[in-house]
């Protein structure tokens, strides 16, 4: 990116200038280059691993962003830096986004759990391009990590280097691993395999352990999977055929692996929101280019109101996804915010709305969105992945349902107070953090925050106020379900949790994508703000509010009389914004 005018949507709304660091700029310029894009397209079509591109990224300093100096302070290891790289990677190629993204998750566990020498060794290796994989899943067990079957026997090596098991109570110097792991990103290529096992003798359901396994000949790749999304990525199954690692390779305590994984996965979910943001931004670019590239019946495509409508909705969703992802990065950067709630919200909302965004573009590109030779097709495939890994949609909804019930009786300061504090703070560096005691996730009052945003929303006041009213209805609905003892019913709690994600995204869209609310929050101005940003905010907020309202009606059809005027206000805002856009399009 040469200047702010060319910035992506996420870069425009991100309150940090991390993406402008020279290393990140040179990575972004390389990814934008037509030769790189053509190389990546070739790999995706041929389903070959983009090793040449990955090597070049490390030459350009990717290792500095991922691993920093061994033992050093880690200037580039803020969430803003890692999000900024992931956004550019996903925009260029979903395969590349996950090939590199997995290192942040895997190294995060190492930085929190491993002893200094192991950690320094892995950081040094990663800095040189020897990447890490996170090795959890087993085919038959899916998300149920507690039932992990891969095992590690504690033992010692004799003078000849042969492994013998130590009896219970003995002190092992080594562990011998057996078992099969499936669907592992980097399972064939990556050097460090951060692996979840059950150590013999640790029989409690959660008593699992993480070991850092350097790849050797005892790690057998049993198959490479052919995936619909991210076809150039290496998604493989591996078998440990008696792999022996020293006890110094423990990542965290014996029996403490699952807690470490859950802690890091909660943060990795924030990172997936920015993969979604990179994808939606690319969808905007390709759809806009297409509208300007053809004529039909003697008239430019961009003259057709129906196509402009899709384009506008796509841009509105792109701004909403970018705003929530940027807000998540800021929340994760704050030492005062435990981000498991906002990252779950961001994972669900950004991934599902990115699917909708790509769908809007797909309707414009029609046949061109279904041809492997055309660039848009990869977005149609890639976007399906984000809701599935690092917690399927239902796994994340189940977790979010536990947090969302706190909305009824919020214990935290309002979001506007927390965010304003976060702006001025020295950001958390994920690289150096020890594993803390698991704190209760920060769940700020949603309805009160939306009311506050409405007071500062200027031109977008009516949509902001409507979102606030919906949030009050949601809090009432949750309170009723909890009081009736029906909150354990997924058919009720999941729609309520999902409605909260739409409204939280609306709050992020206003707070981060709308100038007057940004000013009120003390965020820097939107980089290169555009005249039609207010229309995007109106449309995005209206779409999010309508989605939330439908779920509220599903929860309690009796609320229809109260919800109808709110829905009418949102529908009017949507229609007005579309009319204004159609009259002024194209803007180029
Ligand atoms: C491209 C790709 C890359 C991957 N990379 C990795 C990797 O690097 N490392 C790794 O370890 N794994 C990886 N995985 C595996 C991924 O994490 C698993 O696919 C995931 O855990 C889900 O497992 P599953 O699809 O078998 O679904 P399951 O967990 O078996 O779930 C089955 C169904 O039940 C639903 N469900 C689950 N829990 C609940 C609940 N509490 N309430 C209601 N419904 C529920 C699910 O949403 C799903 O619909 C990858 C997968 C893919 C596709």
Could you explain the architecture of this structure?
With 588 residues, this protein is an alpha+beta fold. Among the domains are: 4-127, Butyryl-Coa Dehydrogenase, subunit A, domain 1 (Orthogonal Bundle); 132-254, Butyryl-CoA Dehydrogenase, subunit A, domain 2 (Beta Barrel); 445-588, Butyryl-CoA Dehydrogenase, subunit A, domain 3, CATH 1.20.140. Helix content is 54%, strand content 11%. The chain contains 20 helices and eleven strands. The protein has helices spanning 9-13, 22-32, 34-46, 51-59, 62-66, 79-92, 94-113, 116-127, 257-291, 305-333, 340-365, 376-382, 393-404, 415-423, 446-456, 461-483, 490-513, 515-521, 533-555, 560-584, and strands at 132-135, 151-157, 163-165, 174-185, 192-199, 209-214, 219-224, 235-246, 250-251, 295-296, 299-300. The strands form two sheets. Strands 1, 2, 3, 4, 5, 6, 7, 8 and 9 form a nine-stranded mixed beta sheet that branches. The protein has a two-stranded antiparallel ribbon with strand order 10-11. β10 and β11 (299-300) form a beta hairpin. α7 runs antiparallel to α8 (116-127), α10 packs across α14 (415-423) and α19 (533-555) packs antiparallel against α20. The chain is globular. The mean pLDDT is 94. The structure holds flavin-adenine dinucleotide (FAD). Residues 102, 133-137, 142-143, 183-185, 227, 230, 235, 385, 388-389, 392-395, 398 line the site of flavin-adenine dinucleotide.
Rg from alpha-carbon coordinates:
24 Å
Report the count of strand segments.
11
Indicate the proportion of strand residues.
5-15%
CATH class of the domain at 445-588: Mainly Alpha
Tally of separate helices: 20
Task: Report, as a whole number of angstroms, the end-to-end distance.
Answer: 19 Å
Q: How is the biggest beta sheet arranged?
A: 9 strands, mixed
What is the CATH architecture term of the domain at 445-588? Up-down Bundle
Regions with little confidence, pLDDT below 50 for 5+ residues: none
- Helix coverage percent: 40-55%
Mean pLDDT: 94
Overall spatial form? globular
Structural class: alpha+beta
CATH topology-level name of the domain at 445-588: Butyryl-CoA Dehydrogenase, subunit A, domain 3
Bound molecules: flavin-adenine dinucleotide
